[in-house]
Design a protein that fits this description.
CATH topology of one domain: Immunoglobulin-like
Bound molecules: copper (II) ion
Distance between the termini: 82 Å
Shape: globular
CATH architecture of one domain: Sandwich
Largest sheet: 8 strands, mixed
Order of helices and strands: HEEEEEEEEEHEEEEEEEEEEEEHEEE
CATH class of one domain: Mainly Beta
Strand content: 25-35%
């Protein structure tokens, strides 16, 4: 609790800082702090000064512009409350940086000297830790241990030289439980000095994060330890997550950082990849190992690479099935195998609006127009060309297309499958009975016999 005196001090300093930072002429020593609120993936930011590199694409995010000052690259982060659309139909009141959660991606080059200003517009103190970076101890951003906390209204500066290329993160190290549960985090990419080293055509980056937001409310519960109800990539949940777009034959990289409190096995359909980097650096090329699922543990980063050589719309998702479900699913009861006929009428007499569901599985929930409280997301949702996708949370699509231009990241729409290459229905006889979800132990399965097999299968 702040005392009245402390509160007045805090609001005065906040007001002063706001005036100084927005009035550029009054505060020329500090670079401008650009801000963005658009939840869509922004085009990569190609460098206009300093060494060249192939910029990353931040999924549903953006890169922080910088300015050169002598031989220093100067950035300005503003820690502040933000409104983030998690997916269409739901907004969250979070804390982040420069208008968004996660904050903008910082990109620079191995050997660069970076000067990062951090202005605190939060109601409490903060500090920024540069996860994975080699730097002087006093620049490590642990409030109390390596520096005084940045009080509301204050601006601190961090200065260090980037000693190695790789994928890093930034996040608060002050009241971490609250500030990370509220969405404060960002990516920090350091490119190799030689742009030919480890070069790829498309380099996607995202953070795994999670929130616990009651349906109908806007602010995350910050004391939740494990039972989160929104599993997100860059603070977005499917169907709010943009696709990974690839030209056929492109060399792809995805860099995935985990700032949740559990591990996430990230799985890609249709392609195998190699794990080529961790927060500790690049995996030597002879030691990179093949996978189709990479487990990203808490506080870790994994960089994976593959050639996008299979055209199509390929699912990319966390393999924990509860992490591909949105908030409303977490309270739904299981009724599989229960005959609910007649029950609804009886219960509705005492509980108005009662709606039983799921006696034949939960798939109804992907299509039903069920009234939701304001500001939440259905359990499983999303539509594609063949029907409901029945997903939520940590799910997106890798869209591989022939003939995409190098810098084209637009959603190319649904994949046009070549004739005869889509799984199809076959005629059966007798028709499969309605089983109402119950398993008949005496069933021999003959009801599903295919009666008109292709002739060549009879030989
Ligand atoms: Cu997961």
């Amino acid at each position: 609790m702040l005392t009245r005196r402390q509160f007045l001090d805090a609001s005065l300093t906040t007001a002063t800082a706001v005036a100084l930072v927005s009035g550029r002429s009054a505060f020329a020593a500090i670079p401008e702090a650009p801000s963005a609120t658009d939840g869509r993936t922004q085009p990569p930011l190609a460098p206009t000064t300093g060494p060249n590199y192939n910029p990353v694409v931040t999924l549903n995010g953006w890169t922080l512009p910088w300015r050169m000052n002598g031989d220093w690259k100067e950035f300005h982060l503003v820690a502040e409350p933000v409104v983030r659309e998690i997916a269409p139909g739901m907004k969250a009141y979070l804390w982040g940086y420069n208008g968004q959660s996660p904050g903008p991606t910082i990109e620079a080059v191995e050997g660069d000297k970076v000067r990062i200003y951090v202005t605190n517009k939060l109601p409490e103190h903060t500090a920024v830790h540069w996860h994975g970076q080699r730097l002087p101890n006093g620049m490590d951003g642990v409030a109390g241990l390596t520096q005084p906390a940045i009080k509301p209204g204050q601006t601190f500066v961090y200065e260090f030289q980037l000693r190695r290329a790789g994928t890093f993160m930034y996040h608060p190290h002050a009241d971490e439980m609250t500030q990370m549960a509220m969405g404060m985090m960002g990516l920090f990419i350091v490119h190799p000095r030689d742009p030919a080293e480890r070069r790829v055509d498309r380099d996607y980056v995202f953070l795994l994060n999670a929130f616990d937001i009651e349906p109908g409310s806007y602010v995350p519960k910050v004391n939740t330890m494990l039972d989160f109800n929104l599993w997100t990539w860059n603070s977005r949940a499917f169907p709010g997550i943009d696709p990974f777009v690839a030209g056929k034959g492109d060399k792809m990289r995805m860099r995935i950082g985990n700032l949740t409190m559990t591990n996430h096995p990230i799985h890609i359909h249709g392609h195998e990849f190699t794990v080529t980097g961790t927060d500790g650096g690049w995996v030597p090329s002879g030691a990179a190992w093949p996978e189709v699922t990479v487990d990203v543990a808490v506080g870790q980063m994994r960089s994976i690479e593959f050639i996008a050589d299979e055209p199509g719309d390929w699912a990319v998702h966390c393999h924990k099935s509860h992490h591909t479900m949105n908030a409303m699913g977490h309270t739904v009861k299981t009724y599989i195998g229960v005959n609910l006929k007649g029950l609804q009428g009886k219960i509705s007499r005492t509980a108005a609006g009662y709606m039983p569901m799921g006696s034949q599985g939960m798939a109804d929930m992907g299509t039903m127009e069920m009234p939701l409280p304001d500001n939440t997301l259905p359990m499983m949702t999303g539509f594609a060309q063949f029907g409901p996708v029945e997903m939520g949370g940590m799910f997106s699509v890798l869209k591989v297309r022939e003939g995409l231009a190098h810098g084209d990241y637009k959603d190319p729409g649904p994949y046009k499958n070549p004739e005869g290459t889509v799984a199809r229905r076959v005629e059966t006889e007798p028709p499969a009975p309605q089983r109402n979800g119950a398993v008949d132990p005496g069933s021999t399965g003959t009801a599903y016999r295919v009666v008109k097999p292709h002739s060549h299968e009879n030989h």
